[in-house]
Amino acid sequence: MAIFTPTNQIRLTNVAVVRIRRAGKRFEIACYRNKVMGWRSGAEKDLDEVLQTHSVFVNVSKGQVAKKEDLVKAFGTDDQTEICKTILAKGELQVSDKERHTQLEQMFRDIATIVAEKCVNPETKRPYTVILIERAMKDIHYSVKPGKSTKQQALEVIKQLKETMQIERAHMRLRFILPRKEGKRLKEKLKPLIKVIESEDFDEQLEIVCLVDPGCFREIDELIRCETKGKGTLEVLSLKDVEEGDERLE
Q1: Which residue has the higher pLDDT, 56 or 98?
Q2: Among 127, 140, 166, 216, which residue carries the largest CB count within 10 Å?
Q3: CATH hierarchy code of domain 171-238
Q4: What are φ and ψ of residue 133, in 5° steps?
Q5: Region 71-79: what's the mean pLDDT?
Q6: 76: phi > 0 → left, psi -120 to 50 → alpha, else beta; which?
Q7: Which residues share a beta bridge with 57?
Q8: How far apart are CA 199 and CA 214, in angstroms?
Q9: Given a cut of 90, is residue 58 above it in pLDDT?
Q10: Closest alpha carbon to 67 in 80, 51, 85
Q11: For the chain, which residues make up each domain, given as ranges?
């Protein structure tokens, strides 16, 4: 005897559900655990690694697939892959209290790690340990925002920590080689973007080794390329200007 299985039902297991309400109806997608936050932060770029199926549901746990007319009314399209992307970006991840707590703890640790990797004590040029940054984040009562990427939040944390401790982004060490003709004029334009000039040699060409804030790198790169019409060169000598050893504060 054949067993009838409704064609609008799909059974899935070990699922993380992302839910959104549109046009008075509930829509859900089935994702792999621990992949949703990776997609939202940009760490995961392969949609197939995030979605268990490209189907849109009204109820994942019951396997009930959304009707085409409901999708068109709510999203303006019946392209399920595009709808899945919308729900991934704007929907609410359904997790248990325990899962949410674990997830927030991991994000807190990831943010602290990014801050520790990017920053130093400006007086000693030594990096801070992740444990020390975590402690400092707790001292300022930093609250993790699940919908924001860890990188964005790390930049927020750096701003807030500057009010309570000696901390700044570690400088990048760069070398510019500029054509003699544009050298002096371009140096004046670059000056506001340079923190420290370590060496300068003006012979056939102008060669400068300097420290800059990482946030200025793109602007410096564009300035050199545009002003020299591609004749100037920019070389990254080191991503972080730091002294050896960790900064440890009691």
Answers
A1: 56
A2: 127
A3: 3.30.70.240
A4: -65, -40
A5: 94
A6: left
A7: 28, 65
A8: 19
A9: yes
A10: 80
A11: 16-94, 97-168, 171-238
CA angle (94, 156, 223) in 5-degree steps: 120
* CB-based contacts of 78, cutoff 8 Å, min separation 6: 68, 71, 72
Query: DSSP letters of the chain?
Result: -PPP--TTB----SEEEEEEEETTEEEEEEEETTTHHHHHHTS---GGGTBS-S--EEETTTTEEPPHHHHHHHHS---HHHHHHHHHHHSEEE--HHHHHHHHHHHHHHHHHHHHHHEE-TTT-PBBPHHHHHHHHHHTT----TTS-HHHHHHHHHHHHTTTS--EEPPEEEEEEEEHHHHHHHHHHHGGGEEEEEEEEESSEEEEEEEE-GGGHHHHHHHHHHHHTT-SEEEEEES----SS-B---
Q: Are the C-beta atoms of 56 and 87 separated by less than 8 Å? A: yes
- Helices 217-228, 180-190: axis angle to 10 degrees equals 150
Beta strands across the sheet bearing 194-202: 194-202, 205-212, 172-179, 233-238
Question: What pLDDT score does 242 carry?
Answer: 55
Superfamily per CATH, domain 16-94: Ribosome maturation protein SBDS, N-terminal domain (3.30.1250.10)
Q: Which amino acid is at 13?
A: T
